[in-house]
Structures are given as C-alpha cells and as structure tokens.
C-alpha cells in the first residue's frame, strides 16, 4: 500500500540522516513522519524517543509516549510506557500527572521497583508521607542488593524521625541501615538523635560508645 511504502521510505530516510554529520534534525523529522503512520514499525519508536531525550525535547517525548501508550495492549508494555511517561512528566514539572502514571503502572505490576522508587520520591516531594512510606517499605523488600536496601532504609529513617515522628519505626529503620553497613557514622548519629528525642540518654550513650 501507499502508506506502507511511505512508512518504509521515511524510516530509511531517518536511518540515513542519522549517520550523516549535522543531520539529526532531518533524522528526527523523518522518524516523526514514520511514527505518524505507524509508531510500532521496526525501531521507529526507540529511535525517535532516544533522539527527543538527547535533544532535551521533553514535551515531544511525552506526546510520543502518550501516543504509543494509547495503542499498547500488553500489560508489561503498558506498565513500562507508563513508568517512562511518568518520568518524563516529572521532568516537565507535572508531578501529579507523573504520580498518576506510576500508580497505573503499579496497579498492573505492584513489584515494579522503578515505579515504586519514582513514586516514593515524588510522594516525598509532595509531602505525601504515607504514600512515600508505603512505597519505600515495599521497595526495601524487593531490591536485590544490601546497598540499595540501605539507601531505602535511610530514607525511611529520615521520614519517621523528621516527618511522621514515629521514633520506634525510625529506630528500626536506622538499625536496618547498620545491619547492612555497621560502620555507617551517619546512621549511628541519627540513631542517637532518635534516642535523645525520646529522652533515652542511656541508650543514646550506649549506642555511640
């Protein structure tokens, strides 16, 4: 068909201009034409999304992701696109729309660590401490390495000590950090602060000895 021929021709033109010096804009235009015909054709989507990201065209990237998401049927693909769209919307400053995308991804794939981490960070930014806490607690159980887990427990320690003022949970969080890094000076100091906040001077001194 005419559209199939045009699609192949625009894709080929994009690949050609992509390898030519100073022709990235022409490559983008060619891939845009191909995407308007069929964004799922070969590597059109990945090429164009990468070019938009490299050129800092975040708004165009968001629109491209929205179009691709509208046509996606597989739950894994939809969850992946929702995470990427959420990340892009966050870069554009639309935090609530970004959080909505992460929630949609998590509805399909509750153990998606990328979505959990991004949703937790945005929730903390918006001072939605309950949502941040729940996401970090789940994330700590899912992350594979002790170093990654330690970072999450540090965030939980801060949240409990500074925002929800739940010192019992703050103590648990900082002790989880120390289980993974017993020489962590910051964790020791923060644990001492937790005990002092509860007027438990004896435990504070014992912890830091």
Walkthrough of the structure:
It is a single chain. With 209 residues, the chain is mostly helical. It has twelve helices and no strands. It has helices at 2-18, 24-37, 44-54, 58-71, 75-91, 95-108, 113-125, 129-142, 146-163, 167-180, 185-197, 201-208. The chain is elongated and about 80 Å long. The N and C termini lie far apart (79 Å). The model has no long low-confidence stretch (mean pLDDT 93).
Task: Name some characteristics of this structure.
mainly alpha
- Count of runs of 4 or more consecutive helical residues: 12
Relative helix content = over 70%
Q: What's the number of extended β-strand segments?
A: 0
Structural class: mainly alpha
Radius of gyration: 23 Å
Strand composition percent? under 5%
* Mean pLDDT, all residues: 93
Largest sheet: none
Uncertain stretches: none
Reading the helices and strands in chain order gives HHHHHHHHHHHH
Principal-axis shape equals: elongated
Gap between N and C termini, in Å?
A: 79 Å
